[in-house]
Design brief:
Number of strands: 2
CATH architecture of the largest domain: Ribbon
CATH class of the largest domain: Mainly Beta
Largest sheet: 2 strands, antiparallel
CATH topology of the largest domain: Pemi-like Protein 1, Chain: D
Strand order of the largest sheet: 1-2
Length: 117
């Protein structure tokens, strides 16, 4: 069994017999994951994708990762809506208190681009 080393650029040479057996060519895309302290390369070829097809499938009784992501996004959206409501209320209160101060200010601006010629 060959024991390739990682070079200074973080690269590793995969032995020729493994490349041939697995159909790895220059440009083959791989996904690297850590699994129980081991580095695992998953080939993103038709064969590799077929091998991981059920990888993200939840076990019976467990929610899917996608369902959890959708639920989390719904919670984030609710927090964003609450925050937007606070900003809207603050804006309306300032507007009612002081009128439209910015519009009056922009009409009398001394900035050269705002002056009429």
């Amino acid at each position: 069994m060959q024991m390739p080393r990682i070079n200074a650029r973080g690269q590793i040479k995969i032995p020729a017999e493994l490349r041939k057996r697995l159909g790895i060519r220059a440009g083959t895309v791989v996904n690297c994951i850590e699994e129980n302290g081991k580095l695992v390369l998953i080939l993103m070829t038709a064969r590799g994708i077929k091998g991981i097809r059920g990888f993200l499938k939840p076990k019976p009784g467990e929610p899917s990762a996608f369902e959890e992501l959708f639920k989390e996004r719904a919670r984030e959206r609710q927090r964003e809506d609450i925050k937007a409501g606070w900003y809207d209320a603050e804006f309306k209160a300032k507007k009612a208190k002081g009128g439209n101060h910015h519009a009056a200010q922009s009409q009398h601006s001394s900035h050269p681009s705002k002056r009429s010629r």
